[in-house]
Specification:
160 residues, alpha/beta, Adenoviral Proteinase, Chain, 18% strand
Length: 160
């Protein structure tokens, strides 16, 4: 598995039936309307023109919002501003660092998170519970092993 492009992410999301609304650089979110569904955010600014840096994910579901960064970092200001426009009842984010620094599989971690919350557990609106349940799949101590885990999860998804 290697670094994913926006086209790769779009194709995988479609195959997994993830309701993907937008994939883009963090500074492109000011131009779109926040609606229920999944968003994949590249933390690079479009103006940087370097092709991208790191993928993160966002879910808007029935007035609740969840943000997921595989490094467990806080929500960027531009994305907080995007979320504020939908006036969420609750806005949470994962603080768990599940991706190791040398890993390039951030897109896979994000896609599996979106799949887990919006497809596998589509009838559950408790995003905080789902974040915790999702993150419990991975090692908290040995993050390098998490690459193997996410690769195995994707192999299982595409075997069927």
């Amino acid at each position: 598995m290697e670094l994913l492009t926006d086209r790769d992410i779009s194709n995988i999301a479609k195959a997994l039936k993830i309701p993907l609304r937008h994939i883009g650089f963090k500074d492109t979110f000011q131009r779109i309307k926040p609606v229920n569904g999944a968003y994949v955010i590249n933390l690079q600014s479009k103006q940087g023109n370097t092709g991208g840096s790191h993928w993160t994910g966002l879910i808007i579901k029935n007035g609740h919002v969840a943000y997921f960064d595989p490094f467990g970092l806080p929500v960027p200001i531009l994305i907080r501003q995007f979320v504020a426009r939908c006036k969420p009842k609750r806005f949470i984010y994962s603080q768990n660092d599940i991706q190791s620094l040398p890993s390039v599989l951030c897109g896979y971690f994000v896609l599996y998170f979106l799949y887990f919350c919006l497809v596998k557990h589509k009838n559950c609106d408790r995003l905080g519970l789902l974040i915790n349940k999702h993150n419990s799949i991975y090692q908290q101590e040995d993050r390098i092993d998490n690459d193997r885990i996410v690769q195995q999860l994707f192999r299982q998804l595409f075997q069927h």
